[in-house]
């Protein structure tokens, strides 16, 4: 694997850390600013919405420059956002800093996935994408727990300053290690937009929303579930999340390896198993050992879908995949927001803290149904990823290798 993938992984590590570390620091942030915990929760919601809307916006703005330069600009935006968060004198300024940082998230992973795939041979593309996403998964094992510990020990502002420094390392790495690959000749914004007329691209994004939504339906409410139902102490939640992160790392690497060999079968197995494990979590949540094993499995099976789904979008978007790739990153966050909302509804309805697991199981099963439908449509047309109308001319598509 090229060293350039290491630079992309470092950037992904910083982004993954800043996305999730705020969840462990909400009490400290709320206390410093004199706001309630639910109000501080807007720092999570604002970031997710920034990713959703920022992914297509920043990608469109970057269509006029090379992908390497755009990645560097996105890391610069990420650094500014985290520095603003670290120095924010008031809560609204902190929220603005979070949103500024989030604008880099979707476009970085979307464009980074295209660059990673371009750096390797065709039969290693999913593995290269997985290598970049390893930075995000490792962030949940190392970056988030350490960032939470630092924030609770010496102040949350120090955590965000460190994350900004990680952004600087990622920026330097991209500048020195990522080759300045020329833009795809003849591909314009209208070609990028035309990818969304492809039913297979839309199905892949819907799989992303439902599949990853299944994961976060359970994980969003993991703290009250583990403390009130399973009987873990409050301090144990951090280490349970580390188990989840370890599962993410393993699942991501396995998903990348097997997606290059058999992409759709990999999706069938991971989504089907994820649905079953989430359903079983309603039972295993009553036992400490079984619940810990289940949490690790959810992380592994959930992230085993990430490289194949991202590669599926790249494959189906043909010669203009950058915008579709970035929007698919936003789809992950849409799934997070949707599942958290649905999980909250069933808890509010009095169905208990394990009820979101059933929500997750249904969402994952829905993603499996869409995967089967996608494969059936592909067999019927006899051609992977047929664009309904529009798009780059066939000659241009054939000349661009992604």
Automatic annotation (TrEMBL):
<dbReference type="GO" id="GO:0005886">
    <property type="term" value="C:plasma membrane"/>
</dbReference>
<feature type="transmembrane region" description="Helical">
    <location>
        <begin position="128"/>
        <end position="150"/>
    </location>
</feature>
<protein>
    <submittedName>
        <fullName>MFS transporter</fullName>
    </submittedName>
</protein>
<keyword id="KW-1133">Transmembrane helix</keyword>
<feature type="domain" description="Major facilitator superfamily (MFS) profile">
    <location>
        <begin position="4"/>
        <end position="382"/>
    </location>
</feature>
<feature type="transmembrane region" description="Helical">
    <location>
        <begin position="358"/>
        <end position="377"/>
    </location>
</feature>
<feature type="transmembrane region" description="Helical">
    <location>
        <begin position="330"/>
        <end position="352"/>
    </location>
</feature>
<dbReference type="InterPro" id="IPR050189">
    <property type="entry name" value="MFS_Efflux_Transporters"/>
</dbReference>
<feature type="transmembrane region" description="Helical">
    <location>
        <begin position="199"/>
        <end position="224"/>
    </location>
</feature>
<keyword id="KW-1003">Cell membrane</keyword>
<dbReference type="InterPro" id="IPR036259">
    <property type="entry name" value="MFS_trans_sf"/>
</dbReference>
<feature type="region of interest" description="Disordered">
    <location>
        <begin position="383"/>
        <end position="402"/>
    </location>
</feature>
<feature type="transmembrane region" description="Helical">
    <location>
        <begin position="266"/>
        <end position="283"/>
    </location>
</feature>
<feature type="transmembrane region" description="Helical">
    <location>
        <begin position="99"/>
        <end position="121"/>
    </location>
</feature>
<feature type="transmembrane region" description="Helical">
    <location>
        <begin position="42"/>
        <end position="61"/>
    </location>
</feature>
<feature type="transmembrane region" description="Helical">
    <location>
        <begin position="236"/>
        <end position="254"/>
    </location>
</feature>
<dbReference type="GO" id="GO:0022857">
    <property type="term" value="F:transmembrane transporter activity"/>
</dbReference>
<dbReference type="Pfam" id="PF07690">
    <property type="entry name" value="MFS_1"/>
</dbReference>
<dbReference type="InterPro" id="IPR011701">
    <property type="entry name" value="MFS"/>
</dbReference>
<keyword id="KW-0812">Transmembrane</keyword>
<dbReference type="InterPro" id="IPR020846">
    <property type="entry name" value="MFS_dom"/>
</dbReference>
<feature type="transmembrane region" description="Helical">
    <location>
        <begin position="289"/>
        <end position="309"/>
    </location>
</feature>
<keyword id="KW-0472">Membrane</keyword>
<feature type="transmembrane region" description="Helical">
    <location>
        <begin position="73"/>
        <end position="93"/>
    </location>
</feature>
<feature type="transmembrane region" description="Helical">
    <location>
        <begin position="156"/>
        <end position="178"/>
    </location>
</feature>
């Amino acid at each position: 694997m090229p060293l350039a993938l290491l630079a992309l992984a470092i950037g992904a590590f910083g982004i993954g850390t800043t996305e999730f570390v705020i969840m462990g620091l909400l009490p400290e942030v709320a206390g410093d600013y004199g706001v309630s915990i639910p109000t501080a929760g807007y720092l999570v919601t604002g970031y997710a919405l920034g990713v959703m809307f920022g992914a297509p916006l920043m990608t469109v703005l970057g269509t006029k420059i090379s992908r390497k330069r755009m990645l560097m600009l996105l890391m610069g935006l990420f650094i500014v956002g985290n520095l603003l968060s670290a120095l924010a004198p008031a809560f609204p300024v902190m929220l603005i800093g979070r949103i500024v940082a989030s604008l880099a998230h979707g476009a970085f992973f979307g464009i980074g996935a295209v660059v990673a795939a371009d750096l390797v041979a065709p039969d290693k593309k999913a593995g290269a994408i997985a290598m970049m996403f390893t930075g995000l998964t490792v962030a949940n094992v190392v970056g988030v727990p350490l960032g939470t510990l630092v924030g609770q020990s010496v102040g949350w502002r120090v955590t965000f300053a460190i994350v900004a420094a990680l952004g600087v390392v990622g920026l330097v790495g991209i500048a020195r290690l990522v080759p300045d690959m020329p833009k795809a000749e003849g591909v314009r914004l209208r070609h990028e937009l035309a990818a969304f007329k492809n039913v297979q691209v839309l199905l892949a994004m819907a799989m992303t929303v439902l599949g990853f939504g299944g994961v976060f339906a359970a994980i969003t409410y993991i703290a009250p579930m583990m403390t009130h139902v399973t009987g873990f102490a409050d301090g144990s939640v951090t280490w349970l999340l580390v188990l989840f992160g370890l599962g993410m790392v393993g699942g991501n690497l396995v998903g990348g390896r097997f997606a290059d060999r058999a992409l759709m079968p990999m999706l069938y197995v991971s989504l089907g198993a994820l649905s079953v494990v989430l359903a079983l979590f309603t039972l295993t949540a009553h036992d400490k050992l079984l619940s810990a094993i289940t949490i690790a499995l959810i992380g592994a099976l959930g992230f085993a879908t990430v490289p194949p789904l991202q590669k599926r979008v790249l494959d189906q978007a043909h010669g203009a995949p950058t915008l579709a790739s970035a929007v698919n990153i936003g789809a992950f966050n849409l799934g997070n927001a949707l599942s958290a909302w649905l999980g909250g509804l069933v808890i509010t309805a009095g169905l208990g803290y394990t009820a979101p697991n059933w929500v997750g199981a249904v969402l994952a099963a829905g993603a499996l149904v869409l995967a089967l439908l996608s494969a059936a449509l592909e067999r019927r047309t006899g051609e992977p990823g047929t664009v309904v109308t529009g798009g780059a001319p066939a000659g241009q598509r054939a000349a661009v290798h992604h």
